[in-house]
Amino acid sequence: MDGSIDRYKARLVAKGYAQQQGIDYTETYAPVAKFTSIRTILTIGAIYDLEIHQMDVRTAFLNGDIEEEIYMTLPEGVEAPPDLPDAVCKLLRSLYGLKQSPRMWNKKIDDFLLSKGYRRLDADHSVYIRRTGNTLAIIAIYVDDLLLVADATTMPTLKRELSERFSMTDCGEIHHFLGLQVQRDRNARKITLDQTHFVDQVLSRFGMVDCKPVSTPLDASTQLKHTAEGEEVKEDENKTTREVYSKNNVDSTLYRQIIGSLMFLTIGTRPDISAAVGIVSQFAENPSQAHFSAAKRILRYLRGTREYKLHLGHDPKGLVDDNPAPDNRNQLNLIGFSDASWGNDLHTRKSTTGYVFYLSGGLISWSSKRQSTVALSSTEAEYMALTHTTKEAVWLRTLTELGFEQVTTTLYEDNQSSIALAKNPVHHARTKHIDIQYHFIREKINSSDVELVYLPTEDMVADALTKPLPRPKFERLVGMMGLYA
User: Quick one: pLDDT at residue 438?
Assistant: First the structure.
């Protein structure tokens, strides 16, 4: 859990790179639980005061059955019999290194759980649920790591069933899962998630341990541009922020390594850097010195906020005055915030969509994404963002599969015109060019799945996921996300 080495392991790994599709394997895909699903399950466990444990499958891939006929050369250290100098191994089970091993393992545990009365969620094929009377058991699978949520009387039975079928390691109550540090306060019915250890690893890897911290991931006045190979863009003396794009060679591989490390943080526990990472990741193909400096600024921000934790299962600081999170924490309430930054991409003039979703006051889902088409107005950009947010709301509302009924999901929006457009198709001549897919939100409003509510821009928490913001507003919105030390 603290990053120290517990033990060393050795494995026999097949040379999967020599396999040929259609001969040695056909399908390889195996689903894993989404991080949003994991945060949702942890929130449910915290609110309902359920037991939350984890188990690990030992040598999981060796449990899979092979459907193809595969032969393997003898591994080093194994000598062929004298009478069979050209002997090879015929594989009877899947082996680490084979392309189909993840799928075969997933199929094996899927068949087992279904035989035990579990039901696989349509929304996430790596989450299983079993209700028997008043008892509840939830299993989330991420390859060989299992997250178990159940009441105190059901948990021992659940573990025993798994241990009888597979060789399991019981890790007890959850503390460290998929690189996330998990701390629980059962009295307050809340859980905190953080990646402090991973942040330290990233800072150490890229030589930023002793860097000077900054208060925001990107400067609000920074405007990054694309540069052609070897091109030099002269500094604009009229700009308030010094921007230098030089011919100096930047290690693009190192740049991409930084971006990849930051992306893992954004999907785990750090929505505060989502907008900044989305911006700098656009220049991974041909980064300049300015782009590299922007990426390092995000690392400097992480240096000052390395101990930030994402708080689940309780009301975050500074949410809107009419607190949409229910006073009774035994009731699940899903709300969302949607925002867009119109035409903020200087290269394509496309807008950026940002949304966040809270489950009973704890942040479980977020996104910062450039829109696929150019919006002709701020209303259109906000309308397209609302559609993107509504699709996530519909997916999250499948909590009904877990046995929790949902009331209408409230979506907060800071643009009055886009709300009017979604509720009533007025001004047809001004909106007939909008792609039909973005009118999906009207259907969901009519079916009462979602309800749009106006929220002033200063309280729009999703604004932090659309563009760089000045320090005071950024820090306030991050606090509203429930992200603090």
Answer: 66
Task: List the one residue out of 322, 270, 267, 340 whose CA is nearest residue 299.
Answer: 270
Whether 57 and 290 have beta carbons less than 8 Å apart is answered as no
Domain final residue pick, 304, 335, 365: 304
> Is residue 184 assigned to a domain?
no
Question: Is there a single domain that holds both residue 130 and residue 99?
Answer: yes
The pLDDT value given to residue 433: 57
In a domain, 195, yes or no: no
DSSP string for residues in 126-184 = TEEEEEETTEEEEEEEETTEEEEEE-TTTHHHHHHHHHHHS-EEEEEE-SEETTEEEEE
Query: Residue 184 corresponds to which tokens in the numbers above?
Result: 């629980």
| Alpha carbons 165 and 141: distance in angstroms, whole number | 16
The answer to whether residues 298 and 322 belong to one domain is: no
pLDDT at 307 over 90: yes
* Other residues' Cβ atoms within 10 Å of the Cβ of residue 12: 13
Q: Which domain holds residue 149?
A: 16-178
10 Å Cβ neighbour count for 84? 8
Q: Which two tokens stand for residue 17?
A: 């790179």
Mean pLDDT of 215-220: 93
pLDDT single digits (tens) 354-387: 999 999 889 999 999 999 889 888 888 998 999 9
Q: What is the mean pLDDT of residues 340-366?
A: 91
**Of 248, 278, 304, which one is at a domain's C-terminal end?**
304
The reply to whether 131 and 39 lie within a common domain is yes
- Here the tokens at position 288 are 């300049």
Q: What string of DSSP letters covers 215-277?
A: SSSS-TT-------TT--BPP-TT-SS---B-S----HHHHHHHHHHHHHHHHHT-GGGHHHH
Write out pLDDT tens, residues 463-479. Answer: 999 999 999 999 999 99
pTM comes to 0.88
Give the number of domains in the chain: 3
